[in-house]
Amino acid sequence: MVQSAARMPAYFISHGGGPWPWLPDWRAEFAPLEASLAQMPAQLPQRPKAVLMISGHWESDCFAVMSAAKPPMVYDYSGFPAETYDITYPASGAPDLARRAADLIEQAGLPSRLDPEMGFDHGCFVPMAVMYPEADIPLFQVSLRHGYDPDQHFRLGRALAPLRDAGVLIVGSGLSYHNLGLFGPAAKQPSQQFDAWLDASLALPQPARTAALLNWEQAPAARTCHAKEDHFAPIFAALGAAEDEPATRIYHQTGIFGGVTASGYRFG
User: pTM of the prediction?
Assistant: First the structure.
């Protein structure tokens, strides 16, 4: 396949905690993340025709593809101020691209379906509100698959890779550290260990990089940082979409909520 000069990179980003941009104290906590997300549009070769988000907050029994023309909002967080349940991110969907994505997934031998009901979850609309606050880029999502099998999610990314040459920005949205029961000083050492492993692994030549990520559970503190890997699995799809392309760390923060280290990456 001939690579387009305007081929979009792929990303694995942190989407932070809950509706943080609308909470002054949390927004201050995530100031480095906000700066990183705000800079992403300037890193692209052209304005995206659409953004395809693979969020740690949507999973299904297959790789479901959001197909609504006007997706609704999904407030999949709890315990936050009432006004955060009135947030709107009125981007249009991308039904034609959704059908193409579903076809590509099925052609790769993976189970897929169109989902005309699913709306934007907070792993999607929160970072998009920073990246594109005008909500003027078509946006759709592809779900994770139950079980988070790394190989299947790498295959998902490989299947979706041709969309990058069609002007689609593929973003895996999760967190490089996600243990809601372990914050503060106790999170410092495990998150640093896992973050250092991730950065070193993403710098490996192929096929060693893919092999390292497929075996991510062997990383230091892997299951401390990700007792459930829903927020790490999006990286497999992002890497699959740019498997032989270099990784660049675009976000790195230490001491989040008193101890957490986290990072985000561009591929390509």
Answer: 0.96
Give the long-range contacts of residues 19-25, CB within 8 A, separation 24 or more: 19/77, 19/80, 19/84, 19/87, 19/122, 19/126, 20/126, 21/126, 21/129, 21/130, 22/83, 22/84, 22/87, 23/80, 23/81, 23/84
- Reported as type and span, the H/E element at residue 10 is strand 10-14
Please check whether residue 61 is in contact with residue 232, taking contact to mean a CB–CB distance below 8 angstroms.
Answer: no
Alpha helices in the chain (DSSP H): 24-29, 31-39, 95-107, 122-131, 150-160, 188-202, 208-214, 222-225, 234-240
- Side chain identity, residue 66: M
Confidence band of 5 (pLDDT split at 50, 70, 90): low
Q: Which residue in this structure is represented by tokens 């949507």?
A: 58
